[in-house]
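Figure 2 data, in text form.
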Amino acid sequence: MKLFDSHCHLDDSSYYKDMDLVMERARTAGVEAIMLVGITEKNSARLVDMAEANPMFYCSVGIHPHDASQATDQALLNLKACAKNPKVKAWGETGLDFARMHSPRETQEFWFEKQMAAAADLNLPLIFHERDSQGRFLEMVTTHSKTHDLKGVVHCFSGNLTEMNAYLDLGLYIGITGILTLKGRGVDLREQVLQIPEDRLLVETDAPYLTPAPEKNKSRRNEPAFVRSTFLKLAELRQDDPERLSEVIWNNTLRLYNIDATTGR
């Protein structure tokens, strides 16, 4: 059984002291590939260096909606230059977050549109972030899809069934996190994952956040090895053979990120 952690943030300072052990645990858990996700101009450049240094790593570049206020045209140009590196396989994390409003709504929307256009220019899939946008995210993505070939994943899906079906109708993948394993918070998601076509499923940690059960009882920090718990819960809920489903999700992830199964490039 091989697993691809399709979304994590391993450049977080919480990993500075024990990265070697984190990676050893990931390999032991069956994790063979990891997508490092960009959230700022500076961190995106750092992720490119990390991905070049480790064959297990791929990365994305982008500006998170929380950081939209720091976006500039020059930053976008710099990110597009970074994206020419062959280890860069996606653009994001980008989208809308109206829950915490670290950046004003109009600023988030402006740079979200700009980043979708940049990804289209580079023929890169998008890693989407959406939280409490009251339909505005779906509206913007739908508008974009009318003039561009839309490819991407709704990371850490936590919406309702209507939203999920709309994303699927647009051809998007759905990223499932450790929320699936949580007794209270994961109730709705455990029902929704049964409705997702198997060829649109991805699994992710969003590490160091969203630690799944049972690891949540022992560690506040999530890490790639824990994607195994999320995956096994997914297989259990769907009453699927883990070996078979892991192969399906592995191939889904390679397809979305345009990674050659033979060469790993």
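Caption note: The chain is about 40% helix and 15% strand.
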